[in-house]
Amino acid sequence: MPTVLLLRDKTTTPSPDENGTDPLAPTDPYERAFAAHGHRTVFLPVLEHVLTHTDALASTLRAGPDERYWGIVVTSQRAVEALQVAWAACCAVDPAFSTSPPARAWLALPFFAVGPSTARASAALGFTPLASSSGKAAALADEILAHLARSSGPFPPLESLLFLAGDKRRDVLPAKLADAGVRLDEITTYRTQPVARFEEALRRCVEVHGKFDWVVFFSPSGVDVAMADLEKLEFWGMVRVAAIGPTTGDHIAVREKGSGEAHVVAERPEAESVASGITKFDQGQGKE
Q1: pLDDT at 259
Q2: Is CATH 3.40.50.170 correct for 3-46+196-284?
């Protein structure tokens, strides 16, 4: 059975399987997807995310969006987590916040999200997300502009789009919207940093779980932190590389300076797309 090293935390929140019938099913969507394709998974986080400025975001939420914001955009689940924390803080101060006029006004705004996973996380908070299925920031920017073109209001609107981002966010979406005259009000809601002593954790992982056949990268930052230590492994030359999407795939190619690139780049930033891509590659290579 091929082994896949996933450079991320394992989701441990209890949840049923997709049909809601098996409460003992694996809780992590990647574990479920790879198991269905006959792969064993090993999880090893390479980055950690620390929420920031949730107090400022909570103040923004309590004030409401009136005459300041016409919509919200998020590009990761971490930003949605920060929104959830800030929303809970508002409810702690005012137990009736969720049904207050400011809360209802926020929930009525267009909510733009990159990728289906981020969309699902925001929907759980009560928002109605308009998601980019491709998981690409540029595609989401195009969808935002298309939404504005279809609206009856002025283009671009006088109000701002509230952008909840991380400290490592890229300029693709802001630049594209700025070129179209769309205003952004950005709040940095989390920072990304390397986990402590990754090289030691990787060595222990190999000692416990043995060699792996695939490694999956989930962000450019993860590539920067982990690649050098992975390349020191004696069996690295036999390992295949997969990326969660084109941004991470491109970063692998740039970092390796033409000497290597991802064998698989997921068509969509979700578990089934990664697992099926790896399975198709292995089948094409005649690999068991």
Answers
A1: 55
A2: no
